[in-house]
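Schema walkthrough. Field components (list of strings):
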Amino acid sequence: MTGDSTSNESGKGSTLVYPGQRLSADGSAQAGHGVRLIDGNLVAMKTGNMVRSGNTVTIEPLSSRYVPRASDLVVGYIEGMTNNIWFVDIGAAFNAILPMSLAPWKVEFGAVRQHLGIGDAILCRVQEVDETHSSVVTMKGMGLRKLKSGFIEEIPPHIIGKVIGKGGGMLQQLKSLGQSRMIIGQNGRIWIDGELSGMSETRKAMDVIRDTAHLPGLNERVAALATE
Amino acid sequence: MGGYGDIQCIDENGIRLDGRTAEQMREVEIECGVIPVADGSARVKWGKNEVIAAVYGPMEAHPRKIQRQDRAILDVRYNMAPFSTTDRIRPGFNRRSREISKVTADALESVVDLELYPRSKIRVEIEIICAEAGTRCAGITAASMALADAGIPMSDMVVSVASGKVHDIVVCDLNKEEDNYGEADLPMGILPMTGELVFLQMDGDLNMEQFQQAWDYNMESAKEVHAIMVEALKRRYGGDE
Amino acid sequence: MAIPIVPTLLRESLAALATEDSRIDGRGRFEGRDIEIEVNCLANAEGSCRVRMGDTIVLVGVKFQIMTPYPDRPTQGGLMTSAEVRPVCGPDWEPGPPSAESIELGRVVDRGIRESGCLNMDDLCILPGEKAWQVIVDLFAISDDGNLFDAFALAAIAALSTAIVPAERFDVGEDYPLPLSSTPMMTSYHKVGGRFVYDANKREELGGDERIHITLGDEGHVHSLQKGLRGVFTAAEFTEIMDQAQIRCVELRDIVGKLE
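Field assembly_structure (string):
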């Protein structure tokens, strides 16, 4: 199987590729994310869907862990602290740090615990990422805050696009299904807040998305839940 | 490799104890995504062997002294469950398992794109549920499948298989009696797309012609198993209909 | 075992769900997850069982060894239950010597079987004073999504009830089915959001408090109890779950009874 072909539109007969697979041989193609040029061949470096976009061939992963990028909005959990920084679990290979200078309050040295304790959930933004994938997050910014109510659902980061949908359509569907507020973290953590019964509807829809995102007809399946 | 005693591993018609001919591989079944809580996982049934592998990560490498600044490390554990063999295995540290864990890590580190995740580790847990010769090979194969299932970037998948010799005849994919009583054992870890090797051990006695035959059997088997691995990924992720 | 952080919101959400008599996965308060059970699934074990409850998957193998009976009990064999929860089954289980959690798991499951008397140690005698059977039950977790206790206990009893004593391999007679005189069943209750629920999943365990394990025999007699983790409960709370245990153990016993 050479995996040559047609560009991949979500839901239309995916071109699943495996690590080591040789991709289309036409000379002009460039290696994008998840693809490498080895001995003149474009080689898939991971399991996923091959996507050809103009000249570039990339692999959309089917399974992945969050890799932080600057300016990503993420939901984090406080894992620990020193006198002037918090350690934040953002679901990446490494914890991020939140220095007290980037907190939304005036924090005194040694008083970090008063504002955020272990286990607290926060909405924050990735400020910078160094070359070893360690990041610094900030809570200075619009809407960034400690999350005091609601649920946090986790989905693999690569299906965030499916949860938002074209033009935000899926996200709208989910919000109205459950009459809830929702904020999507780029790290695959989604904050949902509202009445309990509504939240459970939204979460059921999320289960459908999580389990069947790679199969066609996702919009229909989720819409069907609204009529149940 | 002891004497045969009464055991005739291959008869005058070229039929082995399990009904195979010299060049036939055992039956292999592979399924991925069998451990729901893992980042990636696989089950390999290889003859009577049953192996499961789970992958967790990448994650921060702890303790700090095992971290590498320039790349990730693979933290591999190969273990045999107490009920995997006829005589129960007492749980606990086992030198053989420790060695196999290391050669497995060496094999897999040769294909995984470790430079993408400096200072982190990727846990690979290999558990032998039922053992019948060739567990280290089935283990490497299962681990490679689990890594692919987890979306870990690699330049190829690894298939590992062991051929050998009984009654001076080279046979493909040793079964239990052949492994116990035979005259040679050549396990290899092969990259199916290029035919390159990432794992190689050998015990026993093979002349150059026999060595080449055993080598070729392993290469053929690797292609067959690779096709089964690709099918397993397609079944899990719904590849082109 | 690594101690994961408990998100504060999780505990609050679980408490909120509890006030509306709901659970995080939509189950009823005393509703268990669907059970898949398969026996005789390990070729090299004399008894075996695979149990799946939701995303929790476990394997139990029963193997036999010959032992020398203790001098003060010359006609008795032995039972040993070993749980080695290995890192394969979850991100928080670490490599190394058995953790306190693993050890507790093994011992609680063991007591449930032993105290019921379902296995008569005298039935394990081969030659008085010289040889007897040691029955070894190995508990192996494949995937941990909560309530390993009940999954192990169920699989252990199912494996024992279908085990064959390998007398032929040891040259002491003909193979025969291991005699079990009853079928003790375990049910576990976890305090989540302030009230006990049955068959907690991993998130409920993470955000929950104490747990109670109850093993009941065929006639509903209590054979073993264990309270684990940090928390305080009242007599009334206990009575409520004991009543539930009586019902559920009958259902579970039925499931085991239907296996060949």
